């Protein structure tokens, strides 16, 4: 089973064979025999296939970034992150469907939603670790956001232990001090700064 189609595949890549070693509802471990544009001899490569994801940067009307503190079993630590979630829906989704998932994840994880006349802006996508996984995430800016009347709707399995907003200067300090160290948050902060939506030292 292919979890998600890559957003873009360059020409000249041929998968000769594929062997699945492990699979569950969230990921698969496969070894692909691949011919690449630069290597005419096939190359075996073990890949972790993952569902695509959405990553959301929620900015308040004051320009603060809303983060969640979430326990991560893989690294045995609770860290500050932007809200994010896998795309569980089956089949190919259009842009509107992916945007709806992003807004749902925003509300469920943070208890925030778009304010009246707020906007959700797509910021492209990125690959979390392309050396071993095809996992990719769609990046969104949600602004301005405000607390939802119903609060958050996350479950215990998500292990979210805190949620609050931080000024851009606080976020910059947290990145420099290693308090923010996950790929999703670092990637979307870089995209926000590069696109002119966020300034750490304005």
Low-confidence stretches: none
Share of residues in helices: 10-25%
Cα distance spanning the termini: 47 Å
Please identify the structural class as seen in this structure.
Answer: alpha+beta
* Number of distinct beta strands: 10
Strand order of the largest sheet: 7-4-9-8
Roughly what fraction of the amino acids lie in strands?
A: 35-45%
Domain module count: 2
Shape: elongated
Radius of gyration over C-alpha positions, nearest whole angstrom: 18 Å
Q: Could you please say which CATH topology of the largest domain applies here?
A: Nucleoside Triphosphate Pyrophosphohydrolase
Identify the notable features of this structure and list them briefly:
202 residues; 3 helices; alpha+beta; three-stranded antiparallel beta sheet; 18% helix; 2 domains; Nucleoside Triphosphate Pyrophosphohydrolase
Topology:
Blueprint lengths: L13 E10 L3 E9 L7 E8 L2 E8 L4 E8 L4 E5 L2 E3 L8 H16 L1 E16 L8 E12 L12 E7 L1 H9 L6 H12 L8
Parallel strand pairs: 4-9
Antiparallel strand pairs: 1-2, 2-3, 4-7, 5-6, 5-10, 8-9
What does this structure look like?
The chain has 2 domains: 14-50, no CATH class; 53-194, Nucleoside Triphosphate Pyrophosphohydrolase. The protein has helices spanning 95-110, 168-176, 183-194, and strands at 14-23, 27-35, 43-50, 53-60, 65-72, 77-81, 84-86, 112-127, 136-147, 160-166. The protein has a 4-stranded mixed β-sheet with strand order 7-4-9-8, sandwiched between helices. The chain has a 3-stranded antiparallel β-sheet with strand order 1-2-3, with no helix packed on it. The chain has a 3-stranded antiparallel β-sheet with strand order 6-5-10. It is elongated. 18% of the residues lie in helices and 43% in strands. It has 202 residues and is an alpha+beta fold. The protein is built from 3 helices and 10 strands; from the N terminus they run βββββββαβββαα. The mean pLDDT is 91.
């Amino acid at each position: 089973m292919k979890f998600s189609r890559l957003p873009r595949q360059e020409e000249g890549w041929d998968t000769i064979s594929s062997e699945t070693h492990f699979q569950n509802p969230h990921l698969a471990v496969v070894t692909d025999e691949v011919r690449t544009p630069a290597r005419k001899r096939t190359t075996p490569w073990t890949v972790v296939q993952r569902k695509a994801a959405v990553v959301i940067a929620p900015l308040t009307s004051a320009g603060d970034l809303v983060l969640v503190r979430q326990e991560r079993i893989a690294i045995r630590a609770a860290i500050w992150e932007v809200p994010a979630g896998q795309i569980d829906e089956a089949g190919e989704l259009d842009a509107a469907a992916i945007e709806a998932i992003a807004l749902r994840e925003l509300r469920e994880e943070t208890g925030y939603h778009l304010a009246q006349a707020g906007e959700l802006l797509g910021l492209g996508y990125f690959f979390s670790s392309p050396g071993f996984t095809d996992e990719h995430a769609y990046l969104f800016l949600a602004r301005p956001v405000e607390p939802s009347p119903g609060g958050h709707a996350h479950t215990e399995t998500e292990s979210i232990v805190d949620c609050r907003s931080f000024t851009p200067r606080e976020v910059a300090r947290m990145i420099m001090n290693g308090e923010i160290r996950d790929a999703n948050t670092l990637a979307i902060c870089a995209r926000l700064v590069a696109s002119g939506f966020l300034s750490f030292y304005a």
